[in-house]
Amino acid sequence: MTAFVNLFSPVRIGSMKAKNRLLMSAMSINFGVDDKGWVNEQLTEYFVARARGGVGMMLVGGGAVHPTGLELPQLPALWDDGCIPALEKMVAAVKPFDCCFGVQLMHGGRQSYHDKTVAPSPIPALAVVKSIPKELTIDGIHEMVNAFGDAARRCYQAGFDFIEIHGGHGYLINQFMAPNSNKRTDVYGGSFKNRIRFLLELFRDIKSKCGADFPVGVRINGKDYIENGWTLEEALKLSVILEKEGADYLHISAGIYGSKQLSIPSMYVEHGCFTHLAAAIKNEVSIPVVAVGRIKTPELADLIIKTGKADIIAMGRALLADPELPQKARTGNVTAIRPCIGCCLGCIHAVLAQEPGGCVVNPDVGREYLLKTDEPAAAVYNVLVTGAGPAGMAAARMAALRGHRVTVCEQNGQLGGALRLAAAVPGRSEINDVIKFLARELQRLNVEIRLNTPLSDTLIRTIDPDTVILATGSLPDMPMLKGLFKTKMDLCTVTDVLDQQSTVGDTVIVLGGNQTGLVLADYLSTRNKTVAVLHRKAHFAEEMSSNDRYYLRERLKQDNITLYKPVVIDTFLADGVQFHIGEESVTLKNFDTVVIADNMTPVREAANLLRNKDINIHIIGDAKSPRHLMYAMNEAEEIGRTL
Questions:
Q1: Count H helices, E strands: the chain?
Q2: Which phi and psi angles does 430 have, rounded to 5°?
């Protein structure tokens, strides 16, 4: 019997019928095209992996209709007929998997990463991209209308099943529709009717070039979440108009660059955060409505459909994390789903840095074309992993998948290492999903786990390993600062506090404004502590994704938290600290606790036990060099694959 019967019931979109109601939303993944912008094997196999995993519908992301609208440098270019053969090859590769395959057409407008941006008005984007765009002339607008229609025709000729017009997220179409970005006084600006004119004209052009029966959906914002932006009331009016124009579905998202609610929210935001917008629009139209926004579990997806809030569920990051999510959900194997944790590091942060997209919990993203076969290891080895943090557990899992005999030893009594502590602070409990997933996988693969067991000569003799993987993590580095060890304030580390090995007073100095220091400040603030964060660098929490950091910084806007940067500490006092920021001297007094939450230092003393032994040794994760989770997971799986 199929689990989640609502989610896995078929749905009709115009002339197209999908086997289930899961849509892999378009994502600007920033890889998989050649120097002409034409799709290649890398992007093709990325989609094949997800089609094979059972999703009912997929969208190629960031399909640029015009050179001025290329949002990121490594996205599909659809403005020349030369792109068609590569698209045809991609469609043919996906076709055997009974997945409706489409392309999202977009123009980035002022939110594009180049210096030739265009927009309805010469107003720069509110965030991320800072260039001032050139205002489109009437002829330029007509050129863009034709560009959308011609790009759609190319996708139709290549054999795609449908297309989606991206009219949200602050890109060109949305820029025409929102009053704060459209200051035109001609027929494309001012009134609601004029501001939606560009979208309606390009929609009609697409239908004229692809035929009335070719399914065309439209993604719009239900709300921009910014002053003088696009509103839900306007979205409701537009939805009715689009249905009358012949739109086959509506995909309801929200937010633009710089909005109060981000288009791609992090783990701090509730699941299904934009569903209410889709539900409001569903009440106004009879065509299918797609809900999106932090919908990462089949349970929530099924419930949204069951309760009539939407007809289709769009998942993006969840299908990066696990391409087989649909198949696992359909067969009831939910506990085997590799979870998205909403960190936004690989999928958003890397892409906005104009690097290839990826995923913290799934290092295979973008490498599917290199990993088409999963052959077992040629020889079976005894593998001993010391350290059951995320790197150790991930390496153990991959080694076991390769067929090796794997034992994990952990000197503490719990799995997860420092990641377990990272999940203990407000708003970040989803991090623990990684630990739970890896623990279930190790159990499924019959990996022996020995807790409260440090590496020892006795253990080495007992296991007799061919390979030892040291994943012993890191600890806070105690800085040598004047007066620190003479102060009368209590001194402890962030790990002591989060592991509840140390208590803190009511007034706390946190030394370090990286991610660790900021989430600690949030943690202490919720316990009614007065907190001063001293950061020695110019920017806070640079290792976090900008999306994730945005929500954390908003949380830290509390009266009992003060952030200082870039701090140069002069000396610690009996009950405080003296420091300067540039020419300004600052003295803080009447504090009772200092928490070290700055740099981390590797822990790898266990390597001494392996000297002069005929054992292959690999040091990974923070034990090699303290870094964020994405690098640790990637390194761990790569080591597991090489054994």
A1: 20, 27
A2: -65, -20
Identify the CATH class of 382-475+602-642: alpha beta
3-state secondary structure 50-93: HHHCCCCEEEEEEEECCHHHCCCCCCCECCCHHHHHHHHHHHHH
Token pair of 601 as six digits: 């230092």
Look at strands 382-386 and 467-470 and give their pairing: parallel
Q: Where in the chain is the domain with CATH 3.20.20.70?
A: 11-370
| pLDDT on residue 611 | 85
How wide is the angle at C-alpha 95 spanned by C-alphas 94 and 100, nearest 5°?
85
Could you give the CA distance from residue 269 to residue 427 in angstroms, rounded to a whole number?
Answer: 8
pLDDT in tens, 566-599: 999 999 999 999 999 999 999 999 999 999 999 9
Where exactly does CATH 3.50.50.60 map onto the chain? 478-598
CA distances to 27, 320, 345 from 338, rounded to whole Å, are 19, 10, 16
Tens digit of pLDDT for each residue in 462-475?
Answer: 999 999 999 999 99
Cβ-Cβ contacts under 8 Å for 584 (sequence gap 6 or more): none
> How many of the other CB atoms lie within 10 Å of CB of 380?
13
Q: How far apart are CA 132 and CA 127, in angstroms?
A: 12
Contacts 24+ apart (CB under 8 A), 520-525: 520/425, 520/494, 520/595, 520/597, 521/556, 521/561, 521/563, 522/425, 522/426, 522/427, 522/552, 522/555, 522/556, 522/561, 523/424, 523/425, 523/426, 523/497, 523/498, 524/497, 525/556, 525/558, 525/560, 525/561
Nearest-angstrom CA–CA distance, 86 and 88: 5
The DSSP secondary structure of 177-241, one letter per residue, reads: HSTTT----STTSSSHHHHTHHHHHHHHHHHHHH-TTS-EEEEEEEE--STT---HHHHHHHHHH
Are 232 and 278 a contacting pair, CB within 8 Å? no
* CATH 3.40.50.280 for domain 478-598: no
> According to the CATH classification, is domain 11-370 in 3.20.20.70?
yes
Q: What are 615's two structure tokens?
A: 């054992």
Q: Kindly report, residue by residue over 335-381, the tens digit of the pLDDT.
A: 999 999 999 999 999 998 889 999 999 999 999 999 976 778 889 99
**For the chain, how far is it from start to end, CA to CA, in angstroms?**
39
The DSSP secondary-structure symbol of 329 reads H
Tell me the catalytic residues: 171
